Amino acid sequence: MRRAIALLITLMFVMLISVAVGYGLHEMKKASKVLQDENLLYKSSMILDDIMTMLKVSPDMRNLADSNSSDELYTFLQSSESLPLEVADEKVILSFSSARKRVNINSLNKQNEVLFREFFNRYMVSSSYVDLLKECMRKNQAKDEYNNYSSTLFDQKPTLFRDYIASKKHLDIINDYYLAEYGDTNLKNVPFQQLFRYGKNSNDRIDLNYVTADVWELILSTTQERAQQLYAQEGSYKSLEDLKLTPSEKINIARFKTSFFEPYLLVKIAIIGEENISTIRFIYDIKLKRGYDFVFEF
What we know:
Elements: H1 2-57, H2 59-67, H3 70-79, E1 83-87, E2 90-98, E3 103-104, H4 113-122, H5 128-135, H6 153-156, H7 168-182, H8 192-195, E4 196-197, E5 206-207, H9 213-220, H10 224-232, H11 247-253, E6 258-259, E7 264-272, E8 277-285, E9 290-297
Parallel strand pairs: 3-4, 5-6
Antiparallel strand pairs: 1-2, 2-7, 7-8, 8-9
Helix pairs in contact: 4-9, 9-10
């Protein structure tokens, strides 16, 4: 009996020690992960500072700012889609694209909402989805009027930001609610990645030299074939006459703010580590030499 009790006590101690060791290893792993993330954030910040300095003193950036030329911008973007670098002893891939090739989703308003509805209807998505998007933008609420919503989105998500749609993750929350509430799986077929950008300033112009085919389809309310034709001539437009628009297309495009030269770059920095890749994205204003809307992903 005594031996059995001693054995039981020994087993209990072994179990306790095993649990303690396991918990300690778990905490060490968590601490190591935190340390790695902090180190990666520090390195990313250093690399970002170096890249920002490079952009500010770059002759290419100075030339783009001085020339005001859509041809110069197109030439630069064609040669800068992917640039391998070594910055702060880290392997980095730097890439540039136009920051104005998609529609700011917050530009949805009374003048162009019919085009949004027509676009989503082509994907068999109910007009209720556009109504939901409008609810998520404070500008669509009457002055001094709050909580006047037809959906229950903000009842279910009372802390959800509601002044404007701030990011893709923000839109994902809205989309998840729509899918759960309406069961409309057609929404999954909409090419959101090619359509929208996000941010407070809904007055930003769309650069027609770089818009995606899906954006053409939206802003002109046209067919995929027509949109592909316009997209195929990327970088060659100087005026609306070059687009050879039909009368109805001219009416539609006038519902959006557009131009043929927007000196704003979407800069992507991919930092390649031994086990992972972290990315930094931001908008760079060529003329003002400043970056904004920074996004870090680890």
